[in-house]
Specification:
- By secondary structure, the protein is an alpha/beta fold.
- It has one domain: Aspartate/ornithine carbamoyltransferase (Rossmann fold), CATH 3.40.50.
- The protein has six helices and four strands, in the order ααβαβαβαβα.
- The chain has a four-stranded parallel beta sheet, sandwiched between helices.
- It starts with a helix and ends with a helix.
């Protein structure tokens, strides 16, 4: 699990934290439907991926931009360096962006990157292996399931970037 998401779902009471995240997502979704809300206005996030037209990348971009954040696309090679240079690169990226979603990134690599960058680092937040998918109540693939995932991603973004 990526560290930014782990903050949302602490191990000691994951079920209660997951329920609270789902509730925050519902409230955020309702507030966005009733009028313009931009809790991430002035924030700048990045998607680091080889292809930015994947469902996961498009969903992350929608989640962030609908909350008022600016979204940049960077290549996945931003961190394909030696370990020593990778930490330096993570610090530089952390100075440029308020959060970064790496697609794909093994969750175990996200924690050291987040420590170096000092901003939330997500490991494919909306991807097929994202722990957020376990919180979805709609089972069949449809627009409602995507809207539910989008709301969860938005709640995680807002919480992580406070």
């Amino acid at each position: 699990m990526c560290p930014a998401l782990a903050k949302q779902l602490p191990a000691q009471d994951a079920k209660q934290a997951a329920g609270a995240l789902v509730e925050r997502a519902r409230r955020l979704r309702a507030s966005l439907e009733t009028g313009p809300a931009a809790p991430l206005r002035g924030r700048h996030v990045a998607i680091a991926a080889e292809r930015h037209d994947t469902p996961s990348a498009r969903l992350f971009e929608r989640a962030a931009s609908s909350l008022g954040a600016r979204v940049s696309h960077i290549g996945p090679d931003a961190l394909s360096l030696t370990d020593q240079r990778q930490e330096t690169a993570a610090r530089i990226l952390g100075s440029l962006y308020d959060a970064i979603d790496f697609i794909p990134l093994p969750p175990e690599r996200a924690a050291p990157l987040q420590d170096a960058a000092r901003v939330p680092i997500f490991a494919d937040l909306g991807g097929e292996r994202s722990p957020l998918r376990a919180l979805l109540t709609t089972q069949e693939e449809n627009a409602e399931r995507e809207a539910e995932l989008l709301a969860l991603m938005q709640a995680v973004l807002v919480d992580a970037m406070r």
